[in-house]
Amino acid sequence: MDNSYLAGFFDGEGCIGIRKTFRRQRKGKNVWHIANISCCQSNLPNKSPIILEFKKKFGGSITLEKPKKAKEVIRWSLQGRKLVETFLNNLEPYFIVKKPHTAILRLFLNENRTNHSPVRLTTEQINIREKLYLQMKELNQRGKIII
């Protein structure tokens, strides 16, 4: 499958986000923001060639999920700077719906490049990451389409 086809599928079914987690450390609770890319499909989850193609081409992990009162789905997830940047470099030129998401994620990755664990972040760095997280969260609200 070529990149334009994968991008078209991902534009409709995928998710680009920034995940926020909290980790306890000796000096209290720290906030971590993580670039996250995922895509799922519910039709024939054990025979989903396109999800398997995402894994083959970009890496990441595949999980089978069975939510309560919903169809079983196969989910491909991708995290980690190099993997996420490779994904964006290959598919971003073809995105339509996900263009604003990729712009925010690129800003996040560039900000994140300046400093990463285990070095303590400044308040300013945390505030920048939180702002990008909130912008992405707003874009990802259900029913919101920005073209």
Brief sketch in words of this structure:
This protein has 147 residues and is of the alpha+beta class. Helix content is 44%, strand content 25%. The chain has one domain: Homing endonucleases (Endonuclease I-creI, Roll), CATH 3.10.28.
* Count of separate structural domains: 1
Strand order of the largest sheet: 1-2-4-3
- The CATH homologous superfamily corresponds to Homing endonucleases
Indicate the mean pLDDT. 86
Order of helices and strands: HEEHEEHHH
User: Share of helix among residues?
Assistant: 40-55%
The Rg value, from CA coordinates, equals: 16 Å
Q: If helices are DSSP runs of H or I spanning 4 or more residues, what is the number of helices?
A: 5
Distance from N terminus to C terminus (CA atoms, Å) equals 25 Å
Assign the structural class, choosing from mainly alpha, mainly beta, alpha/beta, alpha+beta, or little secondary structure. Answer: alpha+beta
Global outline: globular
Q: Describe the sheet with the most strands.
A: 4 strands, antiparallel
The name of the CATH topology is Endonuclease I-creI
Which CATH class?
Alpha Beta
